[in-house]
From TrEMBL, chain A:
Alphabetically ordered keywords of this record: Hydrolase
Tagged with keyword Hydrolase: yes
Originating organism: Corallococcus sicarius
Molecular function in Gene Ontology: hydrolase activity
Name listed for the protein in its UniProt record: NUDIX hydrolase
Length: 156, 578
């Protein structure tokens, strides 16, 4: 099943078909196997021309809601955004340029956070800038210690 | 195979051309006729102020319609007579090619070539691929290959996208620069025509005819505006630091560049008519002034709708007008030829001196329409029915080079980046090649030439989903930067040529609904994926965390990254404000 455009046809069915083809039983499993990949990179792997990054995100949110793993997903998204904007990890000196890069990453993270968690992400961003992590900090997955401290799981 | 076709064409050309043009030596670069014209113009330059060779425009590609060659017809006539260039009337179409063919050292700006308008060499140099840009390039390299909108798809590897963007930017700058140069030439011609003292008896473009001069000068204003916008956008593109967005911004220059390009061409053609009228008024006392006035009025009427469409700078209107240009140029050429023929017979009737006759011929010699005008004396047009052919040196008609390989290369870049459409470039080549007398709208170039100009299914597809295609041109436009935050964007530099109304995209209704979280699928409402909300969340949060106002470039970068996530191609069209 292919389409000319990500927004054509039943993209949800298309996306899950590709996930299964790659040997995963959920989108979350597929995405967690690539913890630092961007949404766009994940979309490209599933369908270069007929899957979009936001569709992946939407699917991930739907699955996380069902499995009550939303906070974990939010941490996972933080990893993806930081990895893209700060490939060398947290800057050692937070000058204007470095701070802008951090700010852009935090902005994307906030925008790609479900409504229920926006408040927590907003505070987490504030904390990261007021008491910065060690230089070079680069979380590689949702189980990163510092991230877990910042955004512990609440779901039972 | 190409060679054989070439030979057939060349032989076919023979009986139609004067011996000089058809001699084996008449190929590109060795055409003595070319040299003659050039020499003549240098002589003229002594009086008329030809620009020195080093007039600050260092690059070689010359991309201009050679109306700048136009000089005072009478002076030229005298010079021609003095140098004994009797055969000059058979020189094949050197009028445009002089400035068009890049290997020539001649500058097109002889009439007036201020060096202070040198190209923005500094802006146009490829930027060092380091720092944040490098990161972006790495991130976006892959998508460049994937999306139909990036030239990256043509250039391949990671980083190729940025290099390619730099080359595209250079091509846009070159193209803008060339149109500017041509426009300066046209302006100078207007000034010159207006400043000419009336001949004995008060003849010249005075009295009722001044309106025709004014008409032309008025067009110059919007042409400058369009070129100014294109320059602003190119500058913004060079600063944005995001390959996809840079290409998106450069594509926004397309309609403006295209409008200015063809507008200038039409204006140059109008100058030809005015030159002819001026010559008629001065040298043909027996010609009817009333008829001339009416003729010019009719020609003006032919041009007016196209000029209006071009001046609108609306992508679709500009594209439609451009595609119809060869046909219009055909009509104008016929008008010009008729006017000239009538003048000639009236002069014969009145027993005019040879100098006066020569003056009329000279107007043809230097005309923008030279390539398509019938030979003198009237006979079948030499270029009628003759094919265009791609050679290593450029596009040829028979043995004559129509456009240079460098011009083709520049156009290829612009076409592949989606700045200029294939139909627009085709129209330009058809006009340049004199293939206008039988031109119909949507006439295609031969396959070889089209391919050299960068035509490919991908490029066609890009335009169909982009600004110019048939399929998408009805799809509704949507603001990418949310309109309810217009003021916020204004405060951050989205004003004038860069206001938020310039950043609209065409989107199928179904896609639009899907993106805004509507549509008829269930997952749509689960996540608050409403575009406006998401973009503003990202922007406002980034600004808060940065602790200072975001710049326009940062905003474009953030928005561009979101467009990528939503699979929205960066084909911006101007839209209407609410």
């Amino acid at each position: 099943m292919t389409a000319d455009h990500p927004w054509d046809g039943n993209w949800k069915a298309r996306m899950y078909e590709r996930v299964r083809e790659r040997g995963y039983d959920s989108l979350t499993a597929f995405a967690e196997a690539r913890p630092t990949a961007s949404l766009v990179a994940l979309a490209e792997e599933l369908g270069r021309d007929d899957i979009a990054g936001v569709q992946i995100f939407s699917g991930l949110v739907a699955e996380a809601e069902r499995s009550k793993q939303l906070t974990r997903l939010v941490r996972g998204q933080c990893v993806r955004e930081l990895y893209a904007c700060l490939p060398n990890g947290w800057p050692s000196v937070l000058d204007d340029d470095a701070r802008l890069e951090v700010a852009i990453a935090l902005g994307h993270w906030f925008a790609y956070t479900p409504e229920t968690h926006k408040g927590r992400v907003d505070r987490a961003g504030e904390v990261l800038l007021s008491s910065p992590p060690p230089p070079g900090w680069r979380p590689l997955g949702p189980d990163d210690e510092l991230l877990l401290m910042l955004l512990p799981d609440e779901e039972a | 195979m190409g060679n054989r076709w070439w030979a057939v064409l060349w032989l076919g050309l023979f009986p139609l051309r004067g011996a000089a043009a058809a001699s084996p030596n008449a190929g590109v670069g060795t055409d003595e006729g070319f040299v003659q014209v050039e020499a003549t113009l240098i002589l003229d330059g002594g009086a008329g102020g030809r620009a020195p060779a080093s007039c600050g425009r260092g690059r070689s590609p010359r991309w201009a319609w050679g109306w700048t060659l136009r000089a005072d017809a009478l002076v030229l006539t005298v010079v021609l007579l003095a140098t004994g260039c009797a055969s000059v009337s058979q020189v094949p179409g050197r009028g445009r090619s002089l400035s068009y063919a890049p290997r020539e050292t001649s500058s097109p700006a002889w009439v007036e070539a201020p060096s202070d308008e040198a190209p923005h060499a500094g802006d146009s140099l490829p930027r060092a691929f380091s720092g944040p840009e490098q990161r972006l390039l790495r991130r976006q390299g892959a998508r460049d290959d994937a999306t139909a909108v990036g030239v990256g798809s043509m250039e391949g590897a990671v980083g190729g996208g940025a290099r390619s963007a730099a080359l595209t930017r250079q091509a846009v700058l070159d193209a803008t620069d060339e149109v500017k140069g041509s426009l300066r030439g046209v302006e100078a011609s207007f000034t010159q025509l207006a400043a000419r003292p009336p001949a004995l008896g008060g003849w010249g473009l005075t009295g009722v005819f001044t309106r025709y001069l004014d008409q032309g000068s008025k067009q110059v204003t919007w042409l400058h505006g369009a070129l100014g916008s294109a320059t602003v956008l190119t500058k913004a593109a060079s600063e944005v630091g995001d390959t996809d967005m840079e290409l998106g911004l450069m594509r926004m220059t397309g309609p403006k560049l295209q409008a200015a390009w063809f507008g200038t061409l039409l204006l140059a053609t109008w100058v030809d008519f005015l030159h002819l009228a001026d010559t008629v008024l001065r040298h043909c006392p027996m010609c009817s002034v009333e008829k001339l006035f009416t003729d010019l009025h009719r020609v003006q009427g032919l041009m007016a709708p196209t000029l209006t469409d071009l001046a609108s700078l609306d992508p679709e209107r500009v594209e439609a007008a451009t595609t119809a240009m060869p046909e219009l140029m055909g009509k104008l050429t016929r008008e010009f030829a008729t006017l000239q023929r009538e003048t000639r017979s009236t002069m014969k009737l009145g027993g005019q001196v040879i100098a006066a006759m020569q003056a009329v011929e000279m107007v043809t010699m230097i005309s923008t329409m030279k390539m398509s005008l019938p030979r003198v004396p009237p006979s079948a047009s030499a270029t009628l029915g003759m094919g265009l052919l791609m050679s290593s040196g450029g596009v040829m008609v028979g043995s004559r080079m129509v456009v240079s390989a460098e011009w083709v290369e520049m156009m290829r870049r612009l076409v592949q980046a989606g700045v200029i459409s294939v139909p627009a470039v085709s129209a330009a080549v058809l006009i340049q090649g004199g293939q206008v007398l039988m031109a119909q709208a949507h006439q295609d170039l031969p396959k070889g030439v089209r391919e050299a100009l960068g035509d490919s299914p991908e490029v066609r597809g890009m335009h169909e989903t982009g600004r110019a295609g048939a399929g998408m041109s009805d799809a509704p436009k949507h603001h990418v930067l949310p309109q309810e935050h217009r003021e916020w964007f204004e405060q951050r530099g989205f004003k004038g040529d860069m206001d938020i109304d310039q950043f609209c995209v065409r989107m199928e209704q179904a896609h639009h609904e899907a993106i805004h979280g509507g549509g008829n699928w269930k997952l749509g409402r689960i996540w608050p994926g409403e575009w406006n909300r998401r973009v503003m969340d990202a922007l406002l949060q980034a600004e808060t965390r940065a602790g200072r106002r975001l710049t326009r470039n940062t905003i474009l970068r953030i928005v561009g990254e979101n467009m990528e996530r939503y699979y929205i191609p960066m084909n911006f069209v101007p839209g209407r404000s609410r």
